[in-house]
Amino acid sequence: MNPSPDFSALQPALVWAHFATLCSIPRPSKGEARLREHLKAWAQGRGLATSVDAIGNLLVRKPASAGHESAPGVVLQSHLDMVCQSNADTAHDFLKDPIAAVVRDGWVTADGTTLGADNGIGVALALAILEDGHLVHGPIEALFTVDEESGMGGARGLAADVLQGSLMLNLDTEEWGQFYLGCAGGVNVSAQRSGRPQALPADGLSVRIDVRGLRGGHSGVNIHEGRGNAIKLLVRAVLELDRRWGVQLSSLKGGSARNALPREAFATLVLPLQAATDLDRVLGGLQAEFRAELAGVDDGVAISCTPSAIDSVMAASDQSIWLTTLHAAPHGVRRMSVQVPEVVETSNNLGVVDLSPQSGECHFMVRSLVDSAGLALVEEIVSLFALSGTVATPSGHYPGWKPNPDSPLLALCQSVFRASFGSDSTVQVIHAGLECGLIGGKYPELDMVSFGPTIHGAHAPGEAVQVESVERCWELLKAILAALV
Q1: d(Cα 185, Cα 433) in Å, to the nearest integer?
Q2: Domain residues of the chain, as ranges?
Q3: Which of 202, 313, 289 is nearest to 240 (CA)?
């Protein structure tokens, strides 16, 4: 069991104390119940009204400061769940183990796993607002949603008659100094087919090929940076070995979340015995090729080979279908936005693959600021798999959040930022998904703005949040609430 993180030297103390609690209680998507019940009991112990809806979202209400009951109600919105990613050599059970967070050079991070600052810091900020009895504010509603990272299930299931506030501050973005006013929508695509296991050949070289060392990252935030996809690279490597010697594939696995760029991928396969003398040289050449392609982006990409025990292999036709289809499958930026310069319009992430002799599946996440463009890319993926008779199914579509540049809440936030920090903020539209689109669809009159601290490497091991930016977010949040009364 990892020890609880020590944030005692960090400010603001209230926020970091709540984040320490979040690190200590596991909270994977669809596994937030323990944390939700803890927070519900915590809020009730302070006399705050709480409710849990049918989908599992927690709503906590805090009355306005004395004399400010007529101020507009504000919803503080964050999600309880986190992306659970760990390196293959890190033993961590996200259902049981606390996050081993450490403070290092002005950042809070986790070694070998994701940290959960996305969106744990947003939750901690809202909890600190609920706890602090010295603040000036109108009526507060803290909405803690569930299942955001695996399909936005909490926002999707939120009823249209629960929230009373007219303003909403979403605390789920990752670049301090920026206010977000719009985001992309998304769709999942999953492809599956059964397999026909074949007996292991009488003689051959059974090996495991690993692709590791990639940075990974958030499939919405980092997709435009050209980072490597371990699945795509491994498929290329296996196809090259097949071209040279012929291979019999047993398994191929990579990635662990549809919304995270795959950092690692592994394949087990059988090669002819004569390949043994030249295999290391060929893999070394592929590694050099990948490093040259990804220079300055993913310089640490590495390919290794070790002996492996294999019981059976895939049928030749199944192997051909999977390798060629995955090789042809789109990944990365499809189109940059014309309306919003320097922002991705449409992209796709090949996030997870799990192939065995018995069956295979893979999972994509398509994002777009333009619903029709995203759905067109989904249909391309479905059509590609249909060529081999493989079923690919879209699911979990959520709408984007259409920007409102005339938002009165945005104007107030910008004014408060300028007064508080002596500089101007910027306004952005993010390619990643936020729950604002779904919530706004149910509460069309809700004026919404999103902001947050600086978080690097969300959705990947080594995720880190900048301590100074958390303190600034706290000061900004308090000032915005005070300016609204």
Answers
A1: 6
A2: 13-184+400-483, 187-398
A3: 289
Rounded to 10°, the helix 230-245/316-328 angle is: 130
Question: 253 pairs with which residues across the strands?
Answer: 266, 354
The one catalytic residue among 148, 172, 210, 345: 148
The type of residue at 476 is: L
Active-site annotation holds for 32: no
Give the pLDDT of residue 1: 43
Catalytic residue among 32, 81, 118, 174: 81
Distance CA 26, CA 31 (A): 8
Joined tokens for residue 258: 């549809």
CATH topology of domain 13-184+400-483: Aminopeptidase (3.40.630)
Phi and psi dihedrals of 200, rounded to 5? -65, 135
Confidence category of residue 3, pLDDT binned at 50, 70, 90: low
Q: Rounded to an integer, what is the distance from CA 458 to the centroid of its chain?
A: 6
Q: What is the pTM of this model?
A: 0.85
Q: Is 81 a catalytic residue?
A: yes
Selection from 318, 360, 310, 279 nearest residue 201 by Cα:
310
